[in-house]
Automatic annotation (TrEMBL):
Pfam families (alphabetical): RsmI_C (PF23016), TP_methylase (PF00590)
Reactions catalysed according to its record: cytidine(1402) in 16S rRNA + S-adenosyl-L-methionine = 2'-O-methylcytidine(1402) in 16S rRNA + S-adenosyl-L-homocysteine + H(+)
Family: Belongs to the methyltransferase superfamily. RsmI family.
Molecular-function GO terms, alphabetical: rRNA (cytosine-2'-O-)-methyltransferase activity
Cellular compartments annotated: Cytoplasm
Organism (species): Pontivivens nitratireducens
Enzyme class: transferase
Domain of life per record: Bacteria
Name used for this protein in its record: Ribosomal RNA small subunit methyltransferase I
Amino acid sequence: MGTGPEPALHLVATPIGAARDITLHALDILRDADVLVAEDTRTLRRLMEIHGIPLAGRTVLAYHDHNGPAMRPRLMAALAEGKSVAYASDAGTPLVADPGFQLARSAIAEGHKVRAAPGASAVLAALTVAGLPTDRFLFAGFAPQKQAARRTFLSTFGRVPATLVFYESPKRVASMLADMAHSLGPDRPVAVCRELTKRFEQVRRGPLGQMAEEYAHETPPKGEIVIVVGPPESERHDQEDIDEMLRKALENLRLRDAADAVAQATGLPRRDIYRRALELQDEY
């Protein structure tokens, strides 16, 4: 096998827009891997051409939702033979809203190594430019297409104390924003990120209600869409509530753990909760 990548399933992140947004590590793997696999074989071949990486007699195998069950045994056999298998998503990081999940899980189940060649991700790119909190976030993927199911789906995230990230089709952005305003509240801040890292990249920010109204009266946009919604405002807790929560937590937890638990439950700064926990502990 020469000096190529180690025998393993290598999950290779590919650009979501600009072809230069690929790592040197990823290019090395694509150049030297024994077996090349892609969600879209044409996209990977084109990317390799741009970067001057020859196929060198290798065939790019297709692996996607429709042929996964039939293709996985073939790829597992290649791994069992000690070959290096590189899997590239259509765009972005494999396993993030991507059919590579079952492939990686099968490799792990059969005792093969799984390695990452990290890189571009629409989720992280959107969080970077949204201007919303990033210390805690939840990626929720695509919402259901029908309104009733979509509203139910969205309502489950209403009180999650984190920034929310969704993928959406351009033709459903207006209805998605309307249902978000209904289920999450019209005042929640949102950033609608379109065509990230591409020529016509656009980020629009504002309250959900306002953004839903704007998109309702516009022609549906074109391109890939990521919607980022800010976390809910922390619930108001008076000092007596906080003290009671801390006293109960201190009955079973160490001071630091009690402070962490109450800070997470209230959304208040941990340093303030920790300082108050110290004061309460001195009472005992």
